[in-house]
Amino acid sequence: MTTNRPDNDGMLGRILGPAEPEIGCDDCFRWLDRYVELEASGLDPDAAVPGLRAHLDGCPACREEHDSLLALVTSGA
């Protein structure tokens, strides 16, 4: 039997926030270029900018900016 209930795990995660340290939107935008450059180069961006991945996981606006910038950098444009 299937039920139509909300995704409680996802909802609870959004309420509680990330388990690891997280930076805010201002710091995210400050470090996003470097983070994406490292990511596109195959290096470890999370070691260089701790907390940014946790922020991207919880902030749709910053995640959209990240995804757009990464697509631009990796497209060769």
Task: Provide structural commentary.
The chain is mostly helical. Helix content is 66%, strand content 0%. The chain contains five helices and no strands. Helix 4 crosses helix 5 (60-74). The longest helix is centred in the middle third of the chain and has 16 residues, at 25-40. The protein is globular, with a radius of gyration of 15 Å. The N and C termini lie far apart (50 Å). The relative contact order is 0.17.
- Quote the distance from N terminus to C terminus: 50 Å
* Amount of beta strand: under 5%
Largest sheet: none
- Count the DSSP helices: 5
Portion of residues in helices?
55-70%
Low-pLDDT segments, ≥5 res: none
C-alpha geometry: globular
Succession of helices and strands: HHHHH
Radius of gyration: 15 Å
Q: Helix/strand/pairing class, anyone?
A: mainly alpha
| Mean pLDDT reading | 82
Brief summary:
Helices cover 66% and strands 0% of the residues. By secondary structure, the chain is mostly helical.
Topology:
Layout: H1 8-16, H2 25-40, H3 45-48, H4 52-58, H5 60-74
Helix pairs in contact: 2-5, 4-5
